[in-house]
Amino acid sequence: MHILMTGGTGFIGHRLAPMLIAKGYQVTLWTQQLKPKLPQGVTQWVHRLEELPEVSYDAVINLAGAGIADQRWSPERKALLVSSRVETTRRLVEWIKRQDIPPRVLISASAVGYYGEQGEQLITEDTPPVDGFTHQLCAQWEAAAQQAASTSTRVCLVRTGVVLGQGGGSMKKMLPAFRFGLGGPLGSGQHWFPWIHLEDMARIYLWLLEQPQAQGVYNAAAPVPVRNVDFTRALGKALKRPAWIPMPEKVLHLLFGEMAELLLVSAKMQPQRLQKEGFDFRYPQLPEALQEICD
To answer: Where would I find the DUF1731 domain in this sequence (predicted)?
Structure first.
């Protein structure tokens, strides 16, 4: 099976691509980078879709998008966050529609930000969203991907929580402060934190690829969500460091501007469909996940 992947040089892609190759899949990356750092085992990549080899692609995995927490959300940055996801996905869908033999599946990333601030509400795939920038971003992103759906191509949309793993993602930014004993709750610490281990995140994409009946929206978060204050305590314990210094909400808004909502939004997200359809989480509990990451 030949797979076309976008965003393959990112945090998830660097774990997912070797996993696919180990199972015998051929992986080709479409990347905007001129000198990409390729995942282990990947040798084929193109800068433009027109450069792709003339072969039939059985599946497309779409992970493309500028890092949502990499910079403050200026108007220019917000425009880039949208275009790097929505416009890239639209171009990908147009390419899919031009294929004589279209891929059997498009698995396209989305995010927990689709739901917006949900307070104590338990979030399933059917939960109505609360409007805001992250919802609008994800809704446009998903709508663009859904245009690929046909009798030949099924579409899976993966609403991703906070991915935890070694060497990248949110942990790369959090660990230095926590290792020095300077970590602690954000704001009140009572908001829900939808986390998932990188290994499970990559395995979800592989599972959706290999389940011919899978289509539609899937929440990608561990089945046991925690509050932010409990996450910080668990991380401090895994590192054997204190984690009690709070970061007041006003300070977060001063430091990050509108982007502070990423750190303060409450999303008690459940992977209802994954569990119902038989996906088995390797790291369902936070302490075991953090222990593996921090060892």
So the answer is: 247-293
